[in-house]
């Protein structure tokens, strides 16, 4: 079993570039299905969830080819509408292919999507959006079968501003004649990136990044050449790593505006941050200070994906932080690992109380993607050696995390076992 060996307690110093965003690349890859022909996605990160998405496209008959960070997807040979269960079960975002397939072919079949076990993760809002646009959706023995002779645009209201349901509704609405209005839409930066790609394909989409997205569907779409936005959660990971270990790190290829809540929290913890148009320089003196209270929520609140990362950094500092997680119920699965490193962390339901104190290295297991990154961050700030197993979770969302952390001066190695 592969593991990270980390020698912690050394300040970090260095520069690292941030790769394209997984959570944008996945909906964009689904969106390529909307037009016939060759689309190019630049800065498409080379990591496990993207391989799964490319696997789905291949199984549907599309041709995919990667050169470095660029991926070419030729959807002309599309010849299927059924997504194999094995690929569907690997990640939650597989569900986005249903909306795109419905729009392009009028049908889609798949099992239920998998993904990180962060609590109950229903897809009722996705299904309701398809139904509202005129599709019938049947669940037969755990397999979803979606079909529509003609999709029609209409007003949709999302009771929760779900990122995935907003994206799926946007994709499906591109194939629906007339106007679709998505009310209480998610406002995450990845929604604007999807809007940017859809527009580049010739779609009429307005309001991405606000709570009201309007799509005029049924237009003929064409393939497009588009660069994926930088990954704000990967950037948050590197920033928290420098904050945990102390020192100075420079991130390039970033959009500081996408990191506003995370940078504000790191500043409250005592870090100094310099923002430039595409660079961030973070300087941290140890120990970090607890920030009192932190509540996660949909954009522009503090992102749930960065919550474990910040906790991993603050665990080795001083002072108290009470974390309220409002998006997913099981986002504290990293707690046991942090406690094994000596953290003072108590969890009750969806609230955690963290009191910073010096950590020591330990052998711990990543239970999910961001939880694994949190343990890596804590290990960089902890005295002595740590071993982190469960790397398959981490590899879903980071392109060779250990190499990028090494560029920042971290003593981290992937040991093949
Ligand atoms: C996206 O997941 C991200 N994944 C997640 O990142 C991220 O944590 C999450 O948004 C919140 O920001 C991708 O973009 C691929 P949601 P998604 O639908 O779309 C409930 C990471 O670490 N809900 O906004 O699945 C749901 O249970 C990952 O990179 C329903 O009840 O999140 C949750 O409580 C993990 N019914 C809330 O909405 C539905 O049909 C928000 O989830 C859909 C969602």
Give an overview of the whole structure.
By secondary structure, the protein is α+β, with helices and mostly antiparallel strands. The chain has two domains: 3-18 and 230-415, UDP-n-acetylglucosamine1-carboxyvinyl-transferase, Chain, CATH 3.65.10.10; 22-227, Enolpyruvate transferase domain (UDP-n-acetylglucosamine1-carboxyvinyl-transferase, Chain). Helices cover 31% and strands 28% of the residues. It contains 14 helices and 23 strands. The protein has helices at 22-31, 48-59, 85-88, 96-105, 124-132, 163-173, 189-200, 232-245, 260-268, 307-314, 335-340, 369-381, 391-395, 401-407, and strands at 3-8, 12-17, 38-42, 63-67, 70-74, 107-111, 136-140, 143-147, 155-157, 178-183, 204-206, 212-217, 225-227, 247-252, 272-276, 279-284, 292-295, 319-324, 344-348, 351-356, 363-365, 384-389, 411-415. A four-stranded mixed beta sheet has the order 21-22-1-23. A four-stranded mixed beta sheet has the order 2-14-16-15. The chain starts with a strand and ends with a strand. The mean pLDDT is 97. It binds ligand EPZ.
